[in-house]
Write a structure and sequence with these properties.
heterodimer; A: 112 residues; mainly beta; six-stranded mixed sheet; five-stranded antiparallel sheet; 11 strands; 0% helix; 62% strand; globular; B: 115 residues; four-stranded antiparallel sheet; 10 strands
Chain lengths: 112, 115
């Protein structure tokens, strides 16, 4: 079955700098890759997703890139702000089973 | 409209007691998921209901855990003979179709503490 690995487990960046979180997946049939953000004490919420027919998607300061050959995808946050501090989860799913397989999460800390 | 709701928000119980956790999904959502999240940890899949199909129970950690979904809407997660290691936040999520890739909307969770 699918396995998703996420790195790093913790990432600390200076406010205003960029942050990159990477995930790899094992099942080449996976074709949907969402990213969720979970603020402290809150529920996870979808922030961006990408399907396998595109290589990159942007939404203001966040972007996701997908490399199907290497089976990895990344979340990029530019001009980080204090409100970006949270745990970020990547996930993957395919058409044989729409259930999401989750990465272990990355705690992003934005230093003032 | 209303989002996913869960009750109770907090539950403290004694070891060995049974507990029931409730999830009300977004109206019309046919897929419903239960996850467990221990403090500072990731999302542990428990069970997945999809429309009228048989649920995927592959994530349930032991036979003390069970869940049902009545009328394709409300779901109840039951933990029998609770143990201290069951202490965690239990999250429910729903999505609009069981086919296709759709956003999962999470409820606020139930924080379970087993003394």
């Amino acid at each position: 079955g699918e396995n998703v690995e996420q790195h790093p487990s913790t990432l600390s960046v200076q406010e205003g700098d960029s942050a990159v979180i990477k995930c790899t997946y094992s099942d080449s049939a996976s074709n949907y890759f969402p990213w969720y953000k979970q603020e402290l004490g809150k529920r996870p919420q979808l922030i961006i997703d990408i399907r396998s027919n595109v290589g990159e998607k942007k939404d203001q300061r966040i972007a996701v890139t997908l490399n199907k050959t290497a089976k990895h995808f990344s979340l990029h946050i530019t001009e980080t702000q204090p409100e970006d501090s949270a745990v970020y989860f990547c996930a993957a799913s395919g058409d044989s089973n729409y259930q999401l397989i989750w990465g272990a999460g990355t705690k992003l800390i934005i230093k003032p | 409209g209303a989002g996913v709701s869960q009750s109770p928000s907090n539950k403290v119980t004694e070891k060995g007691k049974d507990v029931e956790l409730r999830c009300d999904p977004i109206s019309g959502h046919t897929a419903l998921y239960w996850y467990r999240q221990s403090l500072g940890q990731g999302l542990e899949f428990l069970i997945y209901f999809q429309g009228n199909s048989a649920p995927d129970k592959s994530g349930l950690p032991s036979d003390r855990f069970s869940a049902e979904r009545t009328g394709g809407s409300v779901s109840t997660l039951t933990i029998q003979r609770t143990q201290q290691e069951d202490s965690a936040v239990y999250l429910c999520a729903s999505s609009s179709r069981f086919r296709g890739h759709n956003e999962q909307f999470f409820g606020p969770g139930t924080r379970l503490t087993v003394l």
